[in-house]
Prior knowledge:
The protein is built from 14 helices and 14 strands. The strands form two sheets. The chain has an eight-stranded mixed sheet, sandwiched between helices. The chain has helices at 3-11, 39-42, 46-52, 71-78, 90-97, 132-145, 203-219, 243-247, 258-266, 282-290, 304-310, 314-332, 378-381, 394-401, and strands spanning 19-24, 56-61, 107-116, 122-124, 148-149, 152-160, 163-168, 228-235, 251-254, 270-271, 297-302, 338-342, 359-365, 387-390. α5 packs across α9 (258-266). The model has no long low-confidence stretch (mean pLDDT 93). By secondary structure, the chain is α/β, with parallel strands linked by helices. The two termini are 23 Å apart.
Amino acid sequence: MSDLLDTIRDLAKKTDSKILMVVLDGIGGLPLTLDGDTELATANTPNLDALARESQLGQVELVGAGITPGSGPGHLSLFGYDPLHYVVGRGALSAVGIGVKLGAGDVAVRGNFATLGANRIVDDRRAGRPSDEKNAEIVTKLRGAISDIDGTPVEIYTESEHRFVVVFRANGGPALGANLSDVDPQATGVQPMTAQAHDDASKKTADLVNAFVQRAEAALQGEPQVNGVLFRGYSDVPHFPSFDDAYQLRAACIASYPMYKGLASLVGMDVLPVEGHEDALEGKVKALTDNWSRYDFFYFHVKKTDSTGEDGDFPEKVHKIEIFDDLLPQLLALKPDVIAIVGDHSTPSKLATHSWHPVPLLIRSEYGRKDAAARYTEEEAQKGSLGLRRGTDVMPLLMANALKLNKYGA
């Protein structure tokens, strides 16, 4: 463990108090004009506003100043794992999240279905966000065209919408390296990149990835929209210290998207089943309510505040924030001893991608000090008593507010 996790593990104690961490994915935003408001400030959020007036607020940098976090590092930071020390690729998170077991030497890769125009120019990195049914159809087509590459078994899995997972199996041979560059340029108007190995152990993996891209484009040539693949987030089998061991918590994850379930599973949380479509929050509230007595820590994930930001849709991100605000009283009715509302990164609609901007943090407990913040917004969070914090500070603060930490030292 890192020094911080070691210290928390030594101080943590079991109590009956309950902690609810709500992660509004990509919640941080930007105004469309310098004199405008962010999505949070624009949204009509009477329930969040009332909660903010009873809470402590601040800002969180998930990795460090100026560093734009991916969802994996952002969540690891919130869970108290230094993302500069505990590194995991998105591929493994997605694979574990959909129940795929990785063996020694295997490499999992996160894929996006994409729309390529003339000269292989990326027109849409997410191929218009196809339905899960269309995703499964394309995966079936690729499985028929690519079952192995030069003797290396290749497995292809549906994740959701534009997302899919590829696993290259070592199959008892030399371990495949995962240290290589992305195919996904994370921009439109340019061609996909060629995977480049960063060490000798990853040269074979880079060849496999590049061969997969060529064969996939050939197999999808007749598709009007889903006609390309982009890769990022290569990962071999990751290992993390146990969340339960570090915090003395019975922890549960309530999420729908495989990547977030995968990360929670890797740190040792129980992943609870959620009824209904992955975008519907009602099933998540039911899972929370039905299991409230069984756990003392809940991670509750809300995805669409991020997806709408990635789509550059300011009004729709505002709408998704308002939907969560309508839902908030159901969470508060469970009377958590500590509730935190935070993001894993910012996704301003203005940028249509993740950004380096700090996210607002709210913590309410019986033992918190009121501060000057009157709303859960980026501007109000700057007035809060929690100040600007690192993401790894969040779990110790929640533990302290839940009276789950003993005194340090004599």
